[in-house]
Hints:
Layout: H1 2-35, H2 48-69, H3 71-86, H4 92-127
Amino acid sequence: MESENRKYTTLALLVFSAICGFIFYKASTQVVDIFKWGGSQVLFGQSWQVVGGVGSGLFAFILFLILTLNEKVTTFLDEVFIELRKTTWPTSKETGASTLVVSIMVGIAGILFFMMDFMWGIVFGILL
């Protein structure tokens, strides 16, 4: 059970690091475009897209290593996945029934608000 949770923890940290790396890439290329640094060939004859991609990949890898080696982070995520296993999810029949009830109640509330708005519109039309 612990090793299966650790797989999910590692996967979650990998996805989080990849998303952070992508955000870092987009932000760094936007900064370069705003300030128009360096022209087309910047570092070792490579463009900013290549340099930013390598830099953001390195950033994501270092972030992944830091988070994976941090015992508090991995323990917390392991406990999160243990709690998720304890969750009871509704059946498709229960979900459909709940969706129907909520849709009917939203429709009733919409009709009531429409009627109140229409009534107040008439009242204020007469007063003004």
